Amino acid sequence: MRRTLTFLAFALPLAAGCSSGSVVPVSGRVTMNGQPLANVHVSFQPIASGSDHNPGGGSYAFTDADGRFTLRMVEGETPGAVVGKHRVEITPRNTDDDADRRGKGAATGVPERYNRNSELTFEVKRGGTDKADFPLTSP
Description:
The chain is of the alpha+beta class. It contains 2 helices and 11 strands; from the N terminus they run H-E-E-E-E-E-E-E-E-E-H-E-E. Strands 7-5-4-9-10 form a 5-stranded antiparallel beta sheet, with no helix packed on it. Strands 2, 3, 6 and 11 form a 4-stranded mixed beta sheet that branches.
């Protein structure tokens, strides 16, 4: 029993440290061709690197009428995002057509290259940021 308690005393903090990083405040603005992009879903998913195979949970937000957003963790709704590099998806919100949710011909005009096939990334640094801005363009 004593050996088990000793093991847990050392293993649990290590396991907790592997599954999530520091969470910091992140906000920004999404524009399309220079105009605010309202009512879209912004998703940040941490990218694993090196020996860190579980960099932490994802974050999300919805833009307001001015295209501004503030991220919240998916698990627990804590404000912010984990420190590190993230893959970013920007997708239409509340559309009736499944094709629109994938970004094809969506009323919001979000090209597919910014959502399911997104190559957008953002580095969340310690201390957070209010400059997570995405100036998108469409053809």
